TrEMBL record:
Domain of life assignment: Bacteria
Protein name from the UniProt record: Glycosyltransferase family 4 protein
Naturally occurring in which organism (per UniProt): Microtetraspora fusca
Amino acid sequence: MHLLGPQWRDDLGDGWNTRPVRLETLEPGSLEAARLKATGYDLLVVGHEYPSLPSWRKTWQELGSDVATFQHAPAFQHQPDAFDGIRSRLYCYSPEMIERYGEHRPIPELAVHLGLHEEEPAAVSGNDLLWLGRIDAEKSPHLAVMAAGILRRRIKVVGPVFDPEYVAQHAHLFAGDHVEMVGELGGQAKTAAFRDAAAYVYTCGRTYVEAGAAVFGESLRAGTPVAALTWRPGTCADAALCPRTGSIATLDPAASDLEAAHALAAAIEAASQLDAADVQEIGMQRFDPVRHFTALASRP
């Protein structure tokens, strides 16, 4: 396996084969393009935007390799001929994403994210609640804070603030005695936050479409059940979870924040009863990196 493109991280360590080239900047027929072709790549796993980029496609077509990409944005517009479902393949996480990108022959597949130094230890029964993500209206962590308050349980809010105005709007909630604003975590600290939680609480805004959330796999692989709030069926939560790994509250978007918080609180109570070891065993199977990348590398 080779990593193609600029090396943005300097902490990968030894054992990685890197080639700092970008296909979209290469001239078809150039010496560097010929060198790439001579390598004989079977598969390129790329960001979802590249198969619709004409300059990238010109070089890729010379290489003769397959291409696989995961749709991580809910509104990106692909070129009509970007995917044929065989040599060029688009993978989508949830039923609603499959429907949104139906014209591009999408293949259902759960996203698996296993970051550097984020290997999971054995599951334990946690204590407090956890919410993790970017802090803004699209992710709506204030609903998780409200649900935790209803249950009189402590909750850690982990992630960077993307929208200070949103935080200011709900400052009275985030300043609650039961809330710990942790900031952004990565690596072992993030894994520990998942492992030590009694439940991971997932929320999103009423109109937000989650294209492929990493948090479901991260939570289940750590042995932490998920309590999810959704606003319609067919979301990533529906694709990722089952009754043995979590509980989903699906509400009409017309419901008030307070109604949503009460429904989420009930889901938290249900999820908190699940067995951590069982959740982890299922999570390791469902979000197995080897299985995931074998799927990406296989033609239908």
